[in-house]
Design goal:
alpha/beta, D-Maltodextrin-Binding Protein, domain 2, 2 domains, 9 helices, 35% helix, globular, SBP_3_CS, Solute-binding_3/MltF_N, ABC transporter substrate-binding protein, signal
């Protein structure tokens, strides 16, 4: 009986020591403000071919869209993770969960809103016709009839081009900038693209000219997966804060010398 009590006593002592040792190895509680620590990554997609909104410089993604995403991530307490995806499958990638959102200059349309949920607009711009300087045959939209028109694949610009010319005369490009660069070569008669993209290309020395007024004004917004109301609310709140405190204005002025939200 005494031996059994002896064994039980030392078994208890060993167990207590083991438990105490485990407790002493635990990391001390972090007393820092949890709001200061990133709460994970916020991944947002773009084509990476839409200068100056999103493009690669020395292999690193940069541009207006990239910086807007970085500021949104910061205000959500997350780490910014910009990624690229081909434009023609970018919504499918979002729906498949490859990234959290698209910050890639996507215009709101009713058709797209059936697949994804959109934030409030984060900038506004128009669809503009551009031609080479020596093209004196295209002076207004009606002159596009039967002409060869360059547009980005799977864009709303393609839809409007088809109103003026045949399907086989609408040339699809991966990048608006490459389409614009084809104007001086004569491969296309005109390019329909975002007004700001063309104007910046002109500012950077590309020999093209704009024709008339914008065909329409698009509201660019940030899509998230359908039903992800929590993320959408966070993005909208971050955008509102950026606009109110002047951060949005600063980013816009850096890239365009003006506020492209138009509010």
């Amino acid at each position: 009986m005494r031996n059994k009590l002896f064994v039980l006593f030392f078994s208890f002592i060993f167990l207590a020591a083991a438990l105490t040792g485990c407790g002493s190895n635990q990391a001390p509680e972090d007393n820092d403000d949890p709001a200061q620590e990133p709460k994970g990554k916020f991944s947002y997609a773009m084509s990476g071919l839409y200068k100056p909104f999103n493009y690669k410089d020395g292999g690193v993604l940069t541009g207006f869209d990239v910086e807007i995403g970085e500021e949104i991530a910061k205000r959500m307490g997350m780490e910014a993770d910009p990624v690229t995806n081909p434009w023609e499958t970018i919504i499918q990638g979002l729906k498949a969960g490859k990234y959290d959102a698209i910050i890639g200059s996507m215009a709101y349309t009713e058709e797209r809103s059936e697949q994804v949920d959109f934030s409030r607009p984060y900038y506004r711009s128009g669809a503009q016709i551009f031609v080479s300087p020596d093209n004196d045959t295209i002076k207004d939209p009606e002159d596009l009839t039967g002409k060869v028109i360059g547009v980005v694949k799977s864009s709303t610009f393609r839809d409007v081009a088809l109103k003026y010319t045949e399907n086989d005369k609408v040339i699809g490009y991966d990048s608006d900038v490459i389409a614009l660069q084809d104007l001086p070569t004569g491969r296309v008669d005109a390019v329909i693209t975002d007004q700001m993209v063309g104007l910046v290309a002109m500012k950077n020395g590309l020999k093209i000219v704009d024709v008339g007024s914008p065909l329409w004004v698009d509201e660019m917004a940030i899509p998230v997966q359908k039903g992800n109301s929590q993320l959408l609310e966070q993005i909208n709140a971050a955008l509102e804060d950026m606009i109110m405190d002047g951060t949005y204005e600063s980013i816009s002025q850096k890239w365009f010398d003006r506020n492209i939200l138009g509010e």
